[in-house]
Amino acid sequence: MQKRTLSFWEIWNMSFGFLGIQLGFALQNANASRILQIFGADVHELSWFWLVAPITGLVIQPIIGYYSDRTWTRLGRRRPFFLAGALMAAAGLILMPNADLFIAILPSLWIGAGMLFVMDASFNIAMEPFRALVADNLPSDQRTLGFSIQTVLIGIGAVVGSWLPYVLANWFNISNRTVAGEVPLNLLLSFVIGAAILVISILITIFTTKEYSPEELEKMDDQPSANEVEAEKKSSLLDIFTDFKNMPFTMRQLALVQFFSWFGLFGMWVFSTPAIAHHVYGLPLSDNSSETYQDAGDWVGVLFGVYNAVSAVFAFFLPVIALKLGRKSTHMFSLVLGGLGLLSIYIAPNEYWLLLSMVGVGIGWASILAMPYAILAGSIPPRKMGVYMGIFNFFIVIPQIINAIIGGPMVKYLYGGDPIYALVTSGVAFLIAAVLCVRIHDVDEPVVAKKV
């Protein structure tokens, strides 16, 4: 028995929930630092507050992957996990910008940081099963298409999430002005709308997508032997450490590429708002409540939306480009363009030139979301797809943890307090990741790419 070839719209519906997840994730990425600064965080402390995000992923994703490999309910194998994650993330989205309502319990800064933790834990619960679902349901020759469609939906969700505060303020005249210590109304409404879209999009995937039953999976051509199945039944959660030790060679090669890619991304997400407000808008680093600062924060959301829009469009072309150049070469060139985009922020003469910088970042982001997973899926055992997708997340969260620990002190002591150099560091990290792509052995690369 072989996996059925799915139509475009079946693959689209299967990944549609990722649109909502990424919308919420984009709201967090573009605005969490801004909200934390409004609640009183200093610029060099921001990366420490963001530390909760990668640590949560480091712990949760492999565990969720392990149990989603072994779960079968009325909702299926993967769907119960991203439904639970979506509901929790929606709660965090609503509560984070409203943290000042709970000052009788704790300072609003700590409530906000706590809600950041809830959101990150929830996004991690939801994301990994979505990655595994694509690998579960698609035959090998459709996986690049599957992850590319997922990247398109991620891009659409991220554009909507990134642009919401700007659109509400400039198109619907909802105020983005505020006083010290309070989140502006346009930002509050953006997070509420994001929570609603997140839940609705997840429900669309749940009601339109079927999963292969355990009995069907056992009959697949790419499934393990009877001895391997019996050994798998005797496994435990602690076997994650054994699986980590025995990870495929291709996965080890991808690990270094992922490390530098996500080190760069984390620096961009954390420091873009203060860097652009200071370096491009000319504001003092102590300013976190003026009208110009709020305008700079809204513009960062627009910029993040642009790179995600570029990502969504470029993702449509990734399967064709990968067939011509090969998947690892496609990823390498995309990372080079992403790195140059980040480096160009330093020399941008005004905020509008940053739109061009985001084109390069968007191309790199599209490839980061698709190519490593397309390469990885062909190198890992099918019955351990979930756990290895979770373990692969180590190489996403570990660089973020390292950046979270050292990023703030680097800005304060090495860069003289100027966060623009954190973005320059991110650009250099992308270029290093591109060079490391040369070493990758893509064991499941389509034959067409090899002949070109």
From TrEMBL:
Q: What is this protein called?
A: MFS transporter
Location in the cell: Membrane
User: Keyword Methyltransferase, does the record have it?
Assistant: no
Taxonomy, superkingdom: Bacteria
| Source organism | Salinimicrobium tongyeongense
Q: Specify the taxonomic lineage.
A: Bacteria, Pseudomonadati, Bacteroidota, Flavobacteriia, Flavobacteriales
- Which segments constitute the Major facilitator superfamily (MFS) profile domain? 1-213, 250-452
According to the record, the segments passing through the membrane are 48-68, 80-96, 102-123, 144-168, 188-209, 254-279, 299-323, 330-348, 354-375, 387-408, 420-441
How does the protein associate with the membrane? Answer: Multi-pass membrane protein
Major subcellular location class: membrane
Query: What are the record keywords, sorted?
Result: Membrane, Transmembrane, Transmembrane helix, Transport
